[in-house]
Amino acid sequence: MSALAKNYSRRKISFKKGKGSFLYATNGKKYLDFVQGIAVNSLGHANSHLIKAANKQSKKLWHVSNAFMIPEGEKLAKRLTQKTFADYVIFQNSGTEATEASIKVARRYFYSIGKPQKNRILCVKNSFHGRTLAAIFASGSKKMTEGFGPKITGFDHFKFEDFNSLKKSIKKNTAAIMLETAMGEGGIKVTSKSFLKKLRKICNQKKILLILDEIQCGIGRSGKFFAYEYSKIKPDIVPIAKGIGGGFPIGAVLMSKKAASGMIPGTHGSTFGGNPLAMSVGNAVLDQIFKKGFLKNVQEVSKYFHIELKKIQKKYPKIIKEVRGIGLLIGIQLFKDQTKFIQKLMDNKLLTIKAAENVIRILPPLNVKKKEVDLAIRIINKVCKNYKI
Ligand SMILES: Cc1ncc(COP(=O)(O)O)c(C=O)c1O
Predict the structure, then answer these.
(1) Which one-letter DSSP state was computed for residue 265?
(2) What percent of the chain shows pLDDT beyond 90?
(3) Amino acid 389: pLDDT
(4) pLDDT tens for residues 48-80?
(5) Is the dihedral of CA 44, 48, 54, 58 positive or negative?
(6) Contact 377, 345 (CB under 8 A)
(7) How far apart (Å, rounded) are the C-alpha atoms in residues 302 and 294?
(8) Strands, E, within the chain: which ranges?
(9) Distances (CA, A) of 5 to 9, 94, 223
(10) What is the Cα–Cα distance from 217 to 221, expressed in whole angstroms?
């Protein structure tokens, strides 16, 4: 009997090692891993550059308190700000902490300019920003909040990509609009470039801060460093996590100078966030992602993947409703529940994971090889061929 609590429905399989796009199970089988810890292992399993960086740092210094200067964190923050809209960074350990901190940053900004009543956060209905109390109420999803006591107030909701619904939901006291640039858990739904542009405009008009949650779609997954870059707009606050650590727990909030102005000493903190070991791994991830041609390769291989998946959809229009996503954040939406299909893929040694709306989520490492995509395509084709609706 397992002593682990039952808050996950785990598949009955475990792994002894991983290499690149593959996982080696304790049952002796080798699986093509297109889950990668849910978009966490941006460079695949056991990446040699990451191993070297973690090993080197682990022999020198793992942890010191944020009461002291941490050069590895200074370096990572500088690199993140030089490449993006941001002027400042706060490091955390996870995505949900990063979204919580983003909410704090937005509220604290308005407090610091003498408008403490401007504190409401407007989010997309049925979105996903993590599992802490504030983050579940930000999601606007009954499934996530049911049974967890008094409602955490301060959140309003609008419908995904519905500008009228957004306009109606903006209140005098709206401090920030927070949304995923591309929804992950919510069913791989990409916020369009035109909607992001309209969002930026209305935020400017109404003096609202724009928070784009890039925890799942950021750090190269879309084919750009951040998915919002396709729209050419600039957000005010961006929480990140997952891919920046390549498997090591790192979260962060990226902020403009203006948005960060309320965060004076004592307003936020974290014991572990930004420790030397985590920061060294984060820097090693960026060494790879910032390499010339890396993101171009993500764009090319993902374009190929989408084209091939759309061919399968055409061949099996009664099984697959839609192929959607951005870059290597890919969703195959079925007409019916996807559980059985995901099991069949696993029986054929391809690992994928569920998202909302009957979507099968496909998240290869960003350095996936074309021949690995071809293998996945062959498996998906085979499962479709033998699939009984
Ligand atoms: C968009 C988004 N925000 C926040 C989170 C929460 O991140 P974590 O599980 O690291 O707390 C996730 C995790 O799936 C996510 O996809």
Answers:
(1) T
(2) 99
(3) 82
(4) 999 999 999 999 999 999 999 999 999 999 999
(5) positive
(6) no
(7) 12
(8) 15-19, 22-25, 30-33, 88-92, 120-124, 155-158, 174-180, 182-183, 189-190, 209-213, 237-240, 251-255, 320-326, 329-334, 350-351, 353-355, 359-362
(9) 10, 20, 37
(10) 5
Which residue's CA is the closest to the ligand 1 atom numbered 8? 95
The residue behind tokens 């925890």 is 215
User: How close is the Cα of 368 to the center of ligand 1, in Å?
Assistant: 22
Global pTM reads: 0.98
Q: What is the pLDDT of residues 248-268, one digit of tens each?
A: 999 999 999 999 999 999 999
SS3 category, 199: helix
Q: Which 3 state secondary structure label does DSSP give 94? A: coil
How close is the Cα of 19 to the center of ligand 1, in Å?
24
What's the gap in Å between 37 CA and the centre of ligand 1?
A: 12
Q: Please tell me if the CB atom of residue 213 comes closer than 6 angstroms to any atom of ligand 1.
A: yes
Distance of alpha carbon 226 from alpha carbon 219, whole angstroms = 6
Give the span between the Cα atoms of 297 and 214, in whole angstroms.
20
- The arrangement of strands across the sheet holding 30-33 comes to 15-19, 22-25, 30-33, 350-351
- Kindly state the greatest CA–CA separation across the chain: 64
Instruction: Judge residue 304's burial from the number of C-beta atoms within 10 Å of its C-beta, 0-12 exposed, 13-18 middle, 19 or more buried.
Output: middle
Q: Which residues contact 69 (CB under 8 A, 6 or more apart)?
A: none
Q: How does DSSP assign 115-132, residue by residue?
A: -TT--EEEEETT----SS
Query: What are the beta bridge partners of residue 334?
Result: 320
CA dist 286 and 219 (Å) reads: 9
